[in-house]
Design brief:
alpha/beta, TIM Barrel, eight-stranded parallel sheet, two-stranded antiparallel ribbon, 14 helices, 10 strands, 40% helix, binds flavin mononucleotide
Length: 362
């Protein structure tokens, strides 16, 4: 029996969620969630690059219950992997963002809410029993950017994650072919009616039309001015060059999210694992380092941490799990990763994340 007709509760690994999700999503939604930019070289390499690293176990260390905890924005969590901010989750499941938010409440983990959510940031905040962080896109309309920050502050978000790799949308051919749009009555609940009109069915990709509102002239100086409007701790997401990581750290970032946006922006760029050691060297413990892109196994998380990350984000597998089973699907997906991650640490002979050192890399 293939995984498309099985109950997600029987799935043994993250890849099994995708075939099942594909069978319940519309071809347009599946294309939107799964697609990458141009030839999708980076999309594929994100997954395969983790296989270039081998782990090197030590024996007889007596590890049976490793400490898996880490921290972000000064807050400690019992696991180092969380769902990534992903747009338009109601396209995957009717409960969309709230299903993932509730799953994270039950797992005692944080939630990263996308600007481009199909649930308002106030509704997400109202559902939060663990910290929610707001992923911010910066708009040409500076008043809109400012009001998003204020709304996030007022509703109780605990930090901002500013995404800086998508001021123009990557060339996503699958979205253009499928004439990507948000089927009514779904809306980008953080944006106004006029912006939402851009997402109506038309020629080409609605995602491209809406992202034309992002501020393509954003630079370090204008970002600093935006950050001057908030007291929230902030992180930057979508950085691939360590010198940009250093600039952000000098400006006061609490964390750097190394990411190529799941291969959806510029094709033919490094993967997170390619550049992570350079960031670890350049930043030397000054800020938190998080990575994402192609993480599908507990051993991938181990590799990220032993090369210098404090934690990782999971994008597409979260969407597939949501499509398969709402909050329960996401919890199952996170449980699978936790079991794999815990087992990998035990078999490596490593008792905690801080003990995960280069001696465990072959
Ligand atoms: C469908 C989709 C929508 C996304 N939307 C956002 C977004 O709104 N904001 C953002 O910062 N990143 C967004 N991302 C990027 C993810 O946060 C993350 O960087 C990426 O998905 C990680 O790669 P993975 O999907 O291979 O795990 C999106 C990714 C996908 C697949």
């Amino acid at each position: 029996m293939d995984s498309s007709s099985r109950d997600f509760k029987d799935f043994l690994n993250l890849d099994e969620f995708e075939a099942s999700a594909k069978s319940v999503l519309s071809p347009m939604a599946y294309a939107y969630f799964s697609g990458g930019a141009c030839d999708q070289f980076t999309l594929r390499e994100n997954v395969s690059s983790w296989n270039n690293i081998k782990l090197w176990p030590r024996v007889l260390r007596g590890v049976s219950n490793p400490d898996l905890s880490t921290s972000i924005f000064g807050q400690s969590f019992h696991l180092p992997f969380y769902p990534a901010p992903v747009a338009m989750l109601k396209l995957a499941h009717p409960e969309g963002e709230l299903a993932v938010r509730r799953a994270m409440n039950r797992l005692h983990l944080p939630y990263f809410a996308s600007t481009m959510a199909t649930t308002s940031l106030e509704d997400i905040a109202g559902e939060s029993t663990t910290p929610s962080y707001f992923q911010l896109y910066c708009f040409k309309d500076h008043g809109l950017t400012k009001s998003l920050i204020q709304r996030a502050e007022q509703s109780g978000f605990k930090g901002l994650v500013i995404t800086v790799d998508a001021q123009m949308l990557g060339k996503r051919e699958a979205d253009i072919r499928h004439r990507f749009h948000l089927p009514s009555p779904l809306k980008l609940e953080n944006l106004d009616h006029k912006s939402n009109l851009e997402l109506h069915a038309s020629e080409g990709s609605g995602a491209e039309r809406i992202s034309a509102h992002f501020d393509a002239s954003l630079n370090w100086k204008s970002l600093e001015a935006i950050l001057g409007q908030t007291k929230l701790p902030w992180a930057i997401k979508g950085v691939l060059h360590p010198e940009d990581g250093v600039i952000a750290a000098d400006m006061g970032a609490k964390a750097i999210f190394i990411s190529n946006h799941g291969g959806r922006q510029l094709d033919c760029v490094p993967t997170a694992i390619d550049v992570l050691p350079l960031f670890a060297k350049a930043l030397a413990g000054r800020v938190g380092i998080f990575v994402d892109g192609g993480i599908r196994r507990g051993t991938d998380i181990v590799k990220a941490i032993l090369l210098g990350a404090d934690g990782v984000l999971i994008g597409k597998p979260m969407v597939w799990a949501l499509a398969c089973g709402g909050a329960e699907g996401v919890i199952r997906m996170m449980n699978i990763l936790e079991e794999e991650f815990r087992l990998a640490l035990c078999l490596l002979g490593c008792s905690s994340l801080k003990n995960l050192r280069m001696e465990h890399k072959f």
